[in-house]
C-alpha cells in the first residue's frame, strides 16, 4: 500500500466519521477500505437504541464494497478519536476475514493520523476463512 492510498483512506474515513450516528456511545467511528480494483469504500457506525442491531463502521464499508462490485479487501483503516489505537471488534475481524487474507493490513488512525498498523493475522490468529469450507459436499 502506498502513501497516497493511506492518505485517501484517511480522508474517506474522516468524511464518513463525521456522519456517524452515535448518540448512545458518543464514539463516532469511520472506516475505509481499499478493494482489489483500487476503489475506496467507506462506512460509519450507526447505533440503535436496541444495541445489537447497530452497525459497525467496518461492516458498513464492507457492505459498500460488495454493493459496488468489489470482492477483496487489500487494506482497511479504522478512524476514531481515541488516545489508543482502535481496532475492529471481534465480529468485524471475522467479517474482514471473509474478504481478506491473514496478511491484510489493518490500520488504526486518529484525527492526527496513523496510530498503529497490524495484520489481520495479528488481530485474528489462526482464523477461519472461506477457503476452509468444503464446497459441493
What do you see in this structure?
- By secondary structure, the protein is α+β, with helices and mostly antiparallel strands.
- It has a single domain, classed as 3-Layer(aba) Sandwich (Cytidine Deaminase, domain 2).
- It has four helices and five strands; from the N terminus they run αββαβαββα.
- The protein has a five-stranded mixed β-sheet with strand order 2-1-3-4-5.
- β1 (29-35) and β2 (40-44) form a beta hairpin.
- The longest helix has 15 residues, at 3-17.
- The radius of gyration is 14 Å and the shape is globular.
- It starts with a helix and ends in a 14-residue tail after the last helix.
- The model has no long low-confidence stretch (mean pLDDT 94).
Instruction: Let me know the number of strands.
Output: 5
Mean of the pLDDT scores?
94
Remind me, CATH topology?
Cytidine Deaminase, domain 2
Major pleated sheet: 5 strands, mixed
**N-to-C order of helices and strands:** HEEHEHEEH
Separation of the first and last Cα atoms: 38 Å
Instruction: Strand order, main sheet: write it out.
Output: 2-1-3-4-5
The dominant shape is globular
Structural class comes to alpha+beta
Helix content: 25-40%
Strand content: 15-25%
At the fourth level of CATH, the homologous superfamily is Cytidine Deaminase, domain 2
CATH class: Alpha Beta
Stretches where pLDDT is under 50 for at least 5 consecutive residues are none
Q: From the coordinates shown, what is the CATH architecture?
A: 3-Layer(aba) Sandwich
